[in-house]
Amino acid sequence: LAQARDAFAVAALDDLVNPSPWGLRRFEAACAGSGALHESVLLVEQADQPIAYIVISRVLDEGSIHNVGVRQDCRRRGLGGVLVDAALVALVEQGAARCLLEVRASNAAAVALYRSRGFTLDGKRENYYPDGAGREDALLMSRAV
Predict the structure, then answer these.
(1) pLDDT digits over 53-74, tens only?
(2) 3-class SS of residue 20
(3) CA 52 to CA 106: how far, in whole Å?
(4) Are 127 and 135 contacting, i.e. CB atoms less than 8 angstroms apart?
(5) What is the four-CA torsion angle of 99, 11, 30, 133, rounded to 10 degrees?
(6) Reduced 3-state DSSP string for 86-130
(7) pLDDT one-digit tens code per residue, 71-110
């Protein structure tokens, strides 16, 4: 579980891996658990530096996965799956009955990961994410936890 002191390193990793980085302020709130969304951040570290992260939150009986990132040179090692599994356990412990997420329609690896963990497609938000040439659809997915 990330602490407030981890925010800078997690934000730096997010800058490297996310086409729409969150920024330091958002990670400061998430790592401290002090934001309006009551987010928390789970980390995988190597040599005391984050190499992968997942941001989750819970409101009433619904959990959400807000952001996931894995350092480029650490991909294809199963870290995303480890983080999603850990997030689902944490959400159950917090009282969630269902987990929601949204993912870029073009992110085939993430969609496959979520499907492998039992997430199903609920719908889409058209033109939701900015991309270099315009906007991209978000796929809405969920599963019981």
Answers:
(1) 999 999 999 999 999 999 999 9
(2) coil
(3) 20
(4) yes
(5) -50
(6) HHHHHHHHCCCCEEEEEEECCCHHHHHHHHHCCCEEEEEEEEEEE
(7) 999 999 999 999 999 999 999 999 999 999 999 999 999 9
40 — phi, psi (to 5°)? -140, 160
Paired tokens of 18: 């996310």
Are the C-beta atoms of 41 and 26 separated by less than 8 Å? no
pLDDT tens, residue by residue, 38-55: 899 999 999 999 999 999
Residue 82 neighbours by CB distance under 10 Å: 15
| Structure-token match 């889409």, residue found | 124
> Which positions are annotated as active-site residues?
102, 114
| Distance, CA of 34 to CA of 36 (rounded, Å) | 7
Q: Is residue 42 within 8 Å of 53, Cβ to Cβ? A: yes
Residue 48's CB is within 10 A of a number of other CB atoms, namely 7
Q: What is the pTM of this model?
A: 0.93
> Which strands form 49-59's sheet, in the order they lie side by side?
40-46, 49-59, 62-70, 98-104, 134-144, 120-131
